[in-house]
């Protein structure tokens, strides 16, 4: 049997080898990676942002370095962050994407907590991906006569558009987004290996199997290439469907191995229907209870988001990391945007069918987009949110191929096409550069995007939390209070959108606490606990605010009775807080009930045995009761710990 296994059309007059070896094209292997890197060079000084906590610096496995790798391979990707069994499945379907967390663990072992390294590797890998995109398109266009001597322009222009498209900023500027980059790198790499295997039997199949398996271990989206690869073989190599599927077997093997491992780790779970709005956007309030959308509402909303994706590909502004409810509202088939989106996709499908015989580049570009977007569309299975810009990372290649192809075809002039694509690329590159600045840290990201996603409960909550975290660091009291008041505004808006948002109530309680509005803080924490009685953060924070409200009542209001009541409530929630015990002892001492003060002072000495003041307080209580022996005993301990205690300064 001949080594050449696939029938091909006559190669264009200018061969691929001639093009690649020409004076300009020989530099493309360096220009494209450099372009990808330079576009994101302004992220190298950025901090961790968004979901980086989940997979990097707050993940108990990643932060162990090499020692944590077994945990990353044997647990849900989010388990190391939640640190409790079952919590990771709050995200519909679970997540098993260990490859990039393993990379992060290795980086943590070598460099510690160092976002510079993460951003550097992301930028380098992204540049490499641009080069692979060009290689793949050059490879498949070699077998077509449609472009004659200009096939290389379309391949290059598509790769450049892909690299500069601003829709990719979330995937590249956010270190966690590396799973998108590595997954696509593996998918395209495996495709190139199979195309080589088609001409050299037995030489590349195993490598294709391994590379595709690694792509899936980075992110499941690569599985769509099980349909993309046969499409390439049929469309551009004139391979029969049966033969194309046979050549795709190495990828099917990699997918099977991944599914077996994933199932062994997570069980067979493609996604359920959690009844929490932040994990299931297709819920609406019916009175005070969340109920699922109707089938019509759900499908109309999905179709709307698919139309939104098309808009962002064409005009990527404004961009935001957050499309949670209700930034995407409940939609109906009577809504104009839904109708326009539906018609747009019907037209695309029609063009894809038409192009099968008449224009296969047109058809392939559309089908590639539809195939790769399907897995994140909420149609195949729930993804836990309405949409996200990072979900366009892989599908966007279809758009980036179609645009220069149509411009070249319609203009009939390579020079004109180059000029138009160049102007688009410059505009996209400028937008990418400026959008990168927003990803500098969580505070900048959340407080910027909340102005775009004004109706998203999640980003309102995040912005409120960011302001509440940063405000106590502000030395200017007026500015600090302004930040806290803005946090309160955002958090109340989040609660209006999502009335059972327990974390928003928690952060609202924190904000009121820093504003010294203890009554409102207590009310917010109580509401959070009413929604989830086991919410530990709310319980701990409520104990703190009861304690400090008690201190305030005693020291500033001179209301010892109220102070005792509040401090006892704090004690019930956290009996092991030394300060609460101390304050209770003092409150009872001031009111002359020294026998009641002693147990609390004794508890302080057990909780903080090196605290000289605690022994001094205990000594004073015994002295007031006339117990000179114990008074002297504890006074001696206090002096042994601090010889100057009790002396006038």
Number of distinct beta strands: 2
What structural category characterises the helix and strand content? Answer: mainly alpha
Residues in β-strands, percent: under 5%
The chain-level mean pLDDT equals 92
Termini gap: 100 Å
How would you characterize the largest beta sheet?
Answer: 2 strands, antiparallel
Structural description of this entry:
With 649 residues, the protein is mainly α. The protein has helices at residues 16-21, 28-39, 52-57, 69-74, 79-82, 99-111, 115-141, 151-164, 169-173, 178-199, 205-218, 225-237, 241-247, 249-266, 295-314, 336-358, 360-374, 396-411, 414-438, 442-449, 457-470, 477-497, 502-514, 518-531, 536-555, 560-573, 578-590, 594-607, 612-624, 628-641, and strands at residues 283-286, 289-292. A two-stranded antiparallel ribbon has the order 1-2. Helix 12 packs across helix 13 (241-247), helix 25 runs antiparallel to helix 26 and helix 28 (594-607) packs antiparallel against helix 29. The longest helix has 27 residues, at 115-141. The protein is elongated and about 105 Å long.
């Amino acid at each position: 049997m001949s080594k050449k296994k696939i029938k091909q059309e006559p190669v264009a007059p200018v061969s691929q080898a001639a093009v690649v070896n020409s004076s300009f094209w020989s530099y493309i292997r360096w220009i494209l990676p450099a372009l990808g890197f330079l576009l994101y060079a302004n992220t190298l000084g950025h901090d961790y942002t968004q979901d980086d906590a989940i997979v990097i610096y707050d993940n108990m496995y990643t932060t162990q370095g090499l020692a944590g790798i077994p945990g990353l391979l044997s647990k849900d990707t989010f388990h190391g962050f939640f640190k409790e069994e079952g919590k990771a499945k709050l995200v519909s379907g679970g997540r098993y994407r260990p490859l990039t967390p393993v990379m992060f663990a290795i980086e943590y072992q070598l460099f510690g907590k160092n976002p510079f390294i993460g951003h550097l590797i992301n930028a380098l890998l992204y540049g490499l991906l641009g080069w692979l995109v060009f290689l793949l398109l050059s490879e498949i266009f070699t077998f077509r006569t449609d472009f004659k001597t200009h096939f290389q322009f379309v391949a290059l222009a598509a790769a450049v558009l892909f690299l500069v498209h601003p829709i990719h900023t979330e995937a590249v500027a956010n270190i966690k987004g590396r799973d998108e980059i590595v997954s696509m790198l593996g998918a395209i790499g495996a495709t190139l290996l199979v195309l080589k295997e088609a001409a050299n039997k037995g030489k590349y199949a195993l490598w294709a199997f391994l590379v595709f398996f690694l792509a899936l271990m980075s992110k499941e989206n690569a599985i769509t290439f099980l349909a993309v690869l046969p499409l390439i073989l049929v469309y551009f190599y004139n391979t029969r469907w049966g033969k194309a599927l046979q050549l795709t077997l190495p990828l099917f093997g990699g997918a099977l191995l991944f599914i077996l491992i994933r199932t062994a780790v997570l069980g067979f779970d493609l996604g359920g229907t959690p009844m929490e709005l932040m994990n299931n956007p297709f819920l609406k309030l019916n009175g005070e209870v969340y109920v699922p959308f109707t089938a019509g509402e759900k499908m109309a909303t999905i179709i709307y988001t698919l139309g939104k994706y098309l808009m962002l590909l064409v005009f990527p502004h404004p961009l935001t990391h957050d499309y949670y409810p209700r930034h995407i509202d409940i939609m109906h088939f009577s809504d104009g945007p839904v109708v326009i989106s539906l018609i747009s996709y019907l037209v695309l499908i029609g063009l894809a069918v038409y192009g099968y015989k008449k224009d296969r580049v047109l058809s392939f570009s559309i089908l590639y987009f539809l195939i790769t977007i399907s897995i994140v569309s909420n149609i195949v299975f729930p993804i836990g949110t309405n949409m996200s810009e990072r979900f366009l990372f892989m599908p966007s290649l279809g758009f980036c191929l179609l645009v220069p192809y149509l411009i070249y075809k319609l203009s009939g002039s390579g020079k004109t096409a180059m000029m138009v694509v160049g102007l688009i690329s410059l505009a996209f590159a400028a937008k990418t550069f400026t959008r990168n600045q927003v990803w500098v840290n969580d505070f900048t990201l959340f407080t910027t995007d909340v102005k775009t996603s004004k109706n998203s409960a999640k980003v309102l909550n995040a912005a409120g939390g960011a302001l509440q975290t940063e405000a106590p660091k502000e030395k200017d009291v007026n500015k600090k209070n302004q930040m806290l008041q803005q946090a309160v505004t955002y958090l109340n808006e989040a609660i209006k959108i999502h009335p059972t948002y327990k974390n928003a109530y928690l952060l609202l309680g924190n904000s009121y606490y820093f504003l010294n509005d203890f009554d409102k803080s207590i009310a917010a924490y109580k509401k959070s606990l009413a929604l989830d009685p086991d919410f530990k953060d709310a319980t701990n924070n409520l104990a703190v605010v009861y304690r400090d409200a008690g201190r305030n009542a005693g020291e500033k209001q001179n209301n010892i009775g109220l102070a005792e009541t509040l401090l006892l409530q704090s004690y019930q929630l956290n009996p092991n807080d030394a300060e609460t015990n101390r304050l209770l002892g003092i409150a009872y001492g001031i009111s002359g009930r020294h026998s009641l003060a002693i147990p609390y002072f004794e508890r302080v000495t057990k909780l903080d045995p090196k605290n000289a003041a605690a022994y001094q307080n205990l000594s004073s209580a015994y002295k007031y009761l006339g117990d000179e022996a114990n008074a002297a005993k504890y006074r001696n301990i206090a002096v042994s710990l601090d010889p100057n205690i009790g002396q006038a300064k």
